[in-house]
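Example record for the data management plan.
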Amino acid sequence: MADYLVIVESPAKAKTIERYLGKKYTVKASMGHVRDLPKSQMGVDVKDNFSPRYITIRGKGPVLKDLKAAAKKVKKVYLAADPDREGEAIAWHLAHSLDIDENSDCRVVFNEITKDAIKDSFKHPRSINMDLVDAQQGRRVLDRLVGYNISPLLWKKVKKGLSAGRVQSVAVKMIIDREKEIEQFKPEEYWSIDGLFLKETDQFQGSFYRVNGEKVKLSNRVEVDNILKMIPDETFVVNKVKKTERRRNPALPFTTSSLQQEAARKLNFRARKTMMVAQQLYEGIDLGKKEGGITGLITYMRTDSTRLSATAQTEGQQYISEHYGQKYLGSVRKNKNSDQAQDAHEAIRPTSAFRDPSSLKSTLSRDQYRLYKLIWDRFIASLMAPAVMDTMTVQLIQNGVEFRATGSKIKFKGFMKVYIEGNDDNAKEEDKLLPELEEGMKVKAEAIKPNQHFTQPPPRYTEARLVKTMEEKGIGRPSTYAPTLDTIQRRGYVTLDNKRFVPTELGQIVIELVLEFFPEIIDIDFTAKMETDLDAVEEGKTHWVQIIDDFYRDFEKRLEIAEQEMEKVEIKDEPAGEKCENCGHEMVYKMGRYGKFMACSNFPDCRNTKPILKEIGVACPKCKKGQIVERKSKKRRIFYGCDQYPECDFLSWDKPIARPCPKCNSLLVEKKAKKGTQIQCSSCDYKEEVQQ
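Corresponding structural encoding:
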């Protein structure tokens, strides 16, 4: 019989840890929290210092009964939930449910699930950290007071099923504000002038820079023509050549936020998927008996620290030295963690630098392999030497008109041999070479071309961009990003269009009401301050009850005003302009979880619904009768089909275009390419150049 019971959150984690600890230990899973505030009521006594009333979560009775029975059979119980606020709170609730003294050395924490880390953590058990627990309680109570007071108001005044959480409301408002910026944006005309220059047989490009040493704004064609008139012939003189060496440092290892952003850019992962796959890698993958069985492959994935342990640094540097050579070794960079970073944590990194992705490819699923490779590459690159770039800037002058050409060459790849950080514009790092040029040399302008442009509105938020902005503004914490993005979509407040957030009418109505009666709830500075205050609770600098009390005094008054003055909002169904084919009543547009759809106005007697089909102006190439329309799969992926379905089953994942292939007369489609969109034939090898 085992002497010790260890309780973790998940069965996968339990299985991995039990193998490391041996026969004296039994490891069981609590399946997350066992106690929480009741769902059916507030569960917070406002008059008694906001005392929370915890109950056993529905369905967790059998789990708790099993844990209690197991606890009675052992000498000691260790609580080994995750190393963060939520994990500390789970341990505290378990201690209360199992009659364990929270001041005893019952708490064990580890940042990675490896044999050495697990065994070492059991040599240093501690008591439950009540500052961490109180920070979690403060957030839980605060969110309950906001959600369970405002949500019923929205049910009465708008429609049932709505909610208004602190962080989610701010996120929706940010999306709405961006949409307003886009709607109000007025494009401004501007021009550029590009030149194609020739030095003997070497071509290179340059752009208009200034006239007579002064910058000139090109706002219209007249101003452009005035510049062009100043260039009577094709000969330019090299006025100045500047050569410099530039060093570029690698990105720091991943935090939760930067991992979600990079996985979105490079792997096309949603935030929720990134965290789900990362959880699998953290809890352990079965690598087979030869490789040690079930092993945790990465460190804890909810962190805002970029710190690396001394052991991880040494291991990483040893790997670099052995596989790339001493010259690729970089000095350990000083971390610039945010003020809120929980520096007891590390960055997200592989548990062993020597477990390279290629050695695991046959063991991991495709998603696991891709995410692990991203984490491993970033970690190794962060310890490598800077890249060295030779840059060259050339001034070309004729009659006072100056063009400027820039070129760069990677002199030493350094960290770029392993990994280059992505960016939202998909710009690719590559050599842009200029020929050898010297001052006084003459070059020929083969072509000078003016180009008209218009300023563009700010882009809509992608998941990655929104997470980045939330982090920069101090809204939410590592554990909240993915759930927040998931919630605002499930509530129908926003939808994703081409992977970018668009607010729905419902989202705009809810935020307008919250803004009118509870402006502090969606104030970015207020929300960020709340996060800072909760961090102060975690650090033991203040008490959570004081923070809640300061907030609730004003909030309670606003609630009373809202109850009396908030008017009922009726969301009228918009006529769709067609009849229901089942009963003949008018079809109307309805707002659902994934945006608008058509439904019969005779509901509930008639439950006919239809998706809103968007024609793209292309006739169906298969049946020749229908039109191609844009549809969405169950996983919300866009595809194209015939509007005569099911009579015609034409389907394409690529967007058809309204002209035939000039080579074989088949259907042409748009294919996604790194630099934009490429036109390809669906039958033959015909391709057109990438359209910028």
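Summary line stored alongside the record: The longest strand covers residues 235-248.
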